[in-house]
Design goal:
By secondary structure, the chain is α/β, with parallel strands linked by helices. It has helices spanning 16-26, 38-58, 71-85, 101-112, 130-136, 159-167, 188-191, 229-232, 240-255, 257-278, 305-314, 334-338, 343-346, 360-381, and strands at residues 4-5, 65-68, 92-96, 116-120, 141-145, 172-176, 195-199, 210-214, 283-284, 295-299, 317-318, 349-353. It folds into two domains: 4-12 and 256-381, Aspartate Aminotransferase, domain 1 (Alpha-Beta Complex), CATH 3.90.1150.10; 16-255, Type I PLP-dependent aspartate aminotransferase-like (Major domain) (Aspartate Aminotransferase, domain 2), CATH 3.40.640.10.
Length: 387
């Protein structure tokens, strides 16, 4: 069966160039970057080179990049690390209501330890209510965290304006840019943020490595202690092969960002246009908002999303109900609930996300398969006359 992979927001296939860059560090190269001998210093040089590549992708300096095990760890370090470091200044944090679970669960941990968190609402298009954000800020607010691109809908948040609002009150700003980096231009100074999370496996790099940008002068209490790695901000021997792969993926992402943006946006828009012609009742969740070019969250009224997802998989199309880390839960998307999506659409919404290996022919085929599967589901669920 020919398979069509449309779940690139969950993870992306490894680029051949990334695999080749990692290969020596999985085979003949094996030094610990903390060692002073030849093997260790070669590993240190490889990590430093990759650190520079990741920094250049977001307009940072090398020493502002902290390598982590994932975007999730980067979010945890940003939220919990900064709040712990600044607890003498205040105990309040403001975040958007549509954040990734890595941010929301970090905030839940803070609340269990006596901190206070305000969850700021978004409108029906998924955009943060800036007036509500302003109203949420207090003298004891130490951090605001608003994601750049939503992982479920692709909706872009006005992070630059968020930074302006927070900085006027001397408050630090973090953005989870995991789903934005490599898809749109991301520059930390333009955004005005103090901390920014990113992840390798969302840009066709390896799983198991992420990074946190920490602006010079910002205090972060480490979550992991024991060694002096990452300028004492994240203890533990670095995963050299994964870090090298991250660096190569960052180079590739920055090289043809504009062309890839246009290609993905064109395919995504054509996919949505074709689908809406075939299924007029479908709804693009967040479709009226600025979005990253590769993401489409589509609601099908009266359809069970889980049944649709499984039926598509049997036909060779891989999509998602929402965040990959939330798979297995029967709870409807907190993002769509925050957008006040009607229940009939809420439970029948799927995310389709494209990547570098997708081509336009696949998108037309996916539309045909989806239309056929929907027609079948509706036919078996519609009571027959006289029944």
């Amino acid at each position: 069966m020919k398979r069509i992979y449309l779940d690139n927001n969950a993870t992306t296939p490894l680029l051949p160039e990334v695999r080749e860059a990692m290969r020596p560090w999985l085979e003949e190269q094996f030094g610990n970057a903390a060692s002073v001998h030849w093997y260790g210093q070669r590993a240190r040089a490889a990590i430093d080179e990759s650190r520079g590549a990741v920094a250049r992708l977001i307009g940072a300096t090398d020493h502002e990049i902290v390598f982590t095990s994932s975007g999730t760890e980067a979010d945890n370090l940003a939220i919990r690390g900064v709040v712990e470091a600044l607890r003498h200044k205040g105990n309040h944090v403001a975040v958007s209501s549509v954040e990734h679970p890595a941010v929301l669960q970090s905030c839940a941990v803070l609340e269990r330890h006596g901190f206070q968190v305000t969850y700021v609402a978004v409108n029906s298009d998924g955009i943060l209510d800036l007036d509500a954000l302003k109203a949420s800020l207090r003298p004891d607010t130490v951090l605001v965290s608003v994601m750049l691109a939503n992982n479920e809908t692709g909706v872009l948040q006005p992070v630059q304006k968020v930074s302006e609002i927070a900085k006027a009150k001397g408050i630090l700003v973090h953005t989870d840019a995991v789903q934005a980096v490599g898809k749109i231009p991301v520059q930390v100074d333009t955004l005005g943020v103090d901390l920014l999370s990113l992840s390798a496996h969302k840009i066709h790099g390896p799983q198991g490595v992420g990074a946190l940008y920490v602006r010079k002068g910002v205090e972060v209490e480490p979550l992991l202690v024991g060694g002096g790695q990452e300028r004492k901000r994240r203890a533990g021997s670095e995963n050299v092969a994964a870090v090298v792969g991250f660096g190569r993926a960052a180079e590739m992402a920055g090289r043809d960002l504009t062309a890839e943006f246009q290609r993905l946006a064109s395919m995504r828009d054509e996919y949505e246009s074709q689908l809406l012609k075939q299924v007029p009742s479908a709804r693009i969740n967040g479709g009226r908002s600025p979005r990253v070019p590769n993401t489409s969250n589509i609601g099908f009224p009266g359809i069970d999303g889980e049944a649709l997802l499984m039926a598509l998989d049997l036909e060779g199309v891989a999509a998602s109900l929402g965040a990959a880390c939330s798979s297995g839960t029967l709870e409807p998307s907190h993002v769509l609930k925050a957008m006040k999506v009607p229940d009939s659409i809420l439970r029948g919404s799927l995310r389709f996300s494209l990547g570098r290996f997708n081509v336009s022919e696949e998108m037309s085929e996916a539309v045909a398969i989806l239309s056929r599967v929907l027609e079948h589901i509706q036919s078996v669920s519609t009571p027959k006359a006289g029944a």
